[in-house]
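Notes to self after the call with IL:
- keep both proteins in one doc
- input above output, always
- annotate only the second one for now

Protein 1:
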Amino acid sequence: MVRSSIFVLGSVVSDAVRYDGHQVVRCLPTSVEQVAVLNNLDQTEKYDFWTEARATGKPVDIRCGPSDCEELKVFVSNESIQCSILVEDVQKAADDMLPKGLQSSASFALDEYHTYDDIIVWMKQLADQYSDIAEYIEFGTSYQGKKLAAIKITGSKAKSGKKAFWMDGGIHAREWITTAAMNYMLAQTLEQYGSDDVVTSLVDGLNVYYAPVINPDGYSYTWTNDRMHRKTMMPSGCSSSPGTDPNRNWDYHWNEAGSSTNPCSESYAGASAADQPEVQAVQDFIREHDDFLGYINFHSYSQLWMSPWGYTSAKAPDYSVQNAAAKAAVTALEAVHGTRYEYGPISTTIYPASGSSADYTYGVCGVLFSYGVELRDTGAHGFVLPADQIVPTGEETFEGIKALGQYMIAHDSGVVV
């Protein structure tokens, strides 16, 4: 398959937002006062906070431009906040992520990032190639008319009462590694079914869904216009930062903690709950199709495996089993390349976030094993993770998924794990 849509990128890149000379600065607040200072700075929308100020000792990553980096450094110095440079040039880092040899490449490489159009073509090809165990499904349409698609892997053994496991990526447009890791795991699941005992038992035990891009408008926009765009593309009333944060828009405790009513905010919750067609489509599918036992919404970055709740610091009714399953997943993940993940509830592990996907699937749909997972890394590259980390990320995450799948199936069958 020729990557025609990626090649087109080269002809439109001159019209895209560029980040030459932009840096990512990491600050480490050592007091609650410094955390508050950084939170207040975040609220001004002057800088692009890649991570939020959430607690003392937790790093805060901030992108600044050539015209305001020095001002930021003076400001944090005056507040006695220690900071250092993580990414020297955001544009160079973003350019380095793009696949090379575009005119001659004729296959879908799992160690490269891909456009939405190419991913859809590839998914259809996979469904044809593995038609005996999988199917391509479309479950909705984005604001701009792009199809929301997934591969459903059922395996060769029909089983009544079989539950399901849904995974999606690309909800936040600039988080490219989530989509690339999904592509890798999708391919491995199909290729290893029937030859790998764990993969085979996972698919025979659960209908497994992979939806690599559930914010196709925003994701496509990061390829053609603005690499750092996070939100959807439905107009929100803010020309400088269009769209809504699709992980603050779900119809469960919408617009409470950790969301914003400011259309220009990166955490803008939308005009009303689930008013984004992409969110509505996933909500409806999870609620109305299959009997889902597991759900994961992949993000980047920070290396976190998180369960409900996001909207409150109170523990979920099934916290113990959710946390135990998360521990099994991150233990298996770490065994591959030594990558360490924290795990625990969303609100206390990263920050309060209402209207999130995992809260909705657990709170409304009753999906017991619902998670939000932040993939690599912990900030050295952030949203511009080099392509040479795609396969290692996919490898370790896939082991985590297999361990989680085993735990889910065993728990659902009444086996003590």
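Protein 2 (the one to annotate):
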Amino acid sequence: MEEQTKEAIDNGGFDFTQALEGFKAGQPLTGERGVLTPLIKALVEAALEGELDSHLAREVTANRRNGKSQKTVKSLSGSFELKTPRDRAGTFEPQIIKKHQTTLSDEIEHKILSLYGLGMSYRDISLHIKELYGIEISAGTLTAVTDRILSRVRQWRARPLERVYPIVWLDAIHYKVREEGKVVGKAIYTVLGVNLEGHKEVLGLYLSKSEGAAFWLQVLSDLSNRGVKDILIVCVDGLKGFPEAIESIYPEAEVQLCVVHQIRHSLKYVSYKDKKAFMSDLKKVYRAETKESGELALEALEDKWGGKYPIVIKSWNRNWEHLSEYFKYPEEIRRVIYTTNIIESVHRQFRKLTKTKGAFANEDSLLKLLYLGIQNVSRRWTMPIQNWALTLSQLAIFFEGRLDKELKIG
């Protein structure tokens, strides 16, 4: 077999001595003028000849060779003209390079998806592939390659989830998408959970024209349908009606409104000259040791600033029940739940990928890019949340009986 391969390589016109001289002279190994490209061509053609030999040996009826067909094949070592042997009966189906296949392997597709997942435009990807490998890739081909991950996106969005997630964060991010010839705003709803092992996991992405409690109800229903039967604590921003939507699906879940969102919202109504003094008084509310001391600080805040900024004080009083849930917990749990900043890290990854995109051509083009962004950020989530073992043991005490089955207690 080795002799046959060597003979085929020699017949294919690959000259080892010439290739070595070219390499010494600075000729690249791969690319349009790569010294390895003729070798790859010779090896593939030798393998195809061997496949046809095996096929003809297995044939029951009379069959024989019938010339060769030719096509351009793209590989990471450069493009080359491949001659594929044919049989007279037309029953030969090559495997190493199948009929109509124009790339040598999946490596080019993996490279394209990797670059696309880093937020590169089709134009930049095409130029990058051309520079590295001397291969021309059209925008249509790039679209076809990236569209192949849509089935993975659909499977991922419908995958079964664990029965219990101790903590879940919900938030939305907004994009422009072309729809029926117009550019419209779309809200991407992101659900991030931490499982019993303390590892973060994006549970789902959902797309809607606007952010609203009614749509969040559909999101939560989907989580339930995919197997999530209990959530201990849900952390959300200050959207009106949000807690009610959560409680309708997960009535035993505690809802913690994001304190950071509440602070940002409040400062929109405070004049610049008062912000420093106002924040100094506001810190006494959300950094209090206990809920009771926080309420006293809120009363003091109202006495001092209520006349000037009644909207701000009214908002804190109205949302206090869900803003103050974290006070009952020790520092380890407080630090994790008082803000949705943990999900903001996912959204920062999204913005990094999409900052140069403008309006997306359609919903699929947005979803497939965000999916790749999630895969990128998930690879960094190798460690559980800090002090998770202690946090989980504390949650098991606060939510008595809710984790017994999963933790095999009792």
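Annotation: Residues 1-11 have pLDDT under 50 and may be disordered. The CA atoms of residues 64 and 409 lie 71 Å apart.
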